[in-house]
Amino acid sequence: MTRHTRILMSVIYSAFVVYLFVPLALMVMMGFKDSKFIGFPIRGWTTEWYAGVFQDSEVLGVFAYSMTIAVSSTLLSLVIGVWVATFLGPNKFRGKLIVFALTCLPAVIPGIISAISLRIFARFLSIEPGMFAIILGHTVHNVPFVALVVMARLATLPKSHIEAAQDLGADKMVAFFRITLPYLLPALIGAGIFCMLLSFDDFVRAFFLGGYQPTLPVLIFAMLRTGMSPEINAISTVVLILTAVLGLWAERSMRRMNKGA
C-alpha cells in the first residue's frame, strides 16, 4: 500500500467516524440543553431532562413494555432458531436449499411489506393487535438471524465430540444438551443480544401490530409529531448507553467463552 493510498484511506475512515459519531454526540449534548427547543446556541446546561426520564411513569412503563416484548420474542427466536439450525446444519435432504431460503426470507423482506403481511396474518388468526401480535412479528423477523449465527457456529463443532458422547451411551437428546448446546452458547448470546436490540428498536412492525399501548420507538415517534424536545434526546441517550453496555457485555462474554473453549 503506497503512502498516498494510506492517506486516502485514513481520510475516508476519519470522515466515516465523524459521520457516525457526531450526530450521536449532538444528540447527547442537546439532552443537557436548558431550553425546550433543540438547536444552537446553547445558553445553559441542565440535567432536568435526564432526571425527568426516570421520573416519568409513562416512559418507564413503555420501556418495561418494550423490554418484555424484546425478551419474549428473543427467547422464542432462540428456541426456534436453534431447532432450525440443528435441522438444516448437519442433515442432507432434497429441498434443503429451498427450506434454507424460506428460513432467511423474513430477514430480506422490506419492513413495511413484512409488517403489513403480519398484520393480515394476525387478523386471519383472530389475534388482536397488542403485545402478543408484536412478539409474533418480531419472532418471525428474528429467527433467520439466530439460525444463521447458530449454523455458522455448529459448522465448527467437531463430529468426534458427538460420536464420543454416543459411544459412552448418550442418546441424541443427551448429546445435544451436554455437548452441542454448551458449544453453541457464545453464538446464542450474540444472536440473543442482536435479536433483543432488533426487537427493542423496531418501529414498523410495532406500529402495525401494536394496540393502544405503544412501544418506545412508537412513543418517540408520537412525541416527535408535536416537535423536537430535549426530553426525546434524553430518552434516546439513555437507550444508547444501555445498548452500548449490553453490547460490550455480550462481546466480552463471547470472548471469554471462546477462550475457554
Automatic annotation (TrEMBL):
The keyword Cell membrane applies. Keywords: Cell membrane, Membrane, Transmembrane, Transmembrane helix, Transport. Its main location: membrane. It comes from the Bacteria. CDD domains: TM_PBP2. Belongs to the binding-protein-dependent transport system permease family. CysTW subfamily. It is a multi-pass membrane protein. Gene3D superfamilies: MetI-like. It comes from Chelativorans salis. Residues 63-250 form the ABC transmembrane type-1 domain. This is ABC transporter permease. The keyword ATP-binding does not apply. It is found in: Cell membrane. The chain crosses the membrane at residues 7-32, 62-85, 97-118, 130-154, 175-200, 232-250.
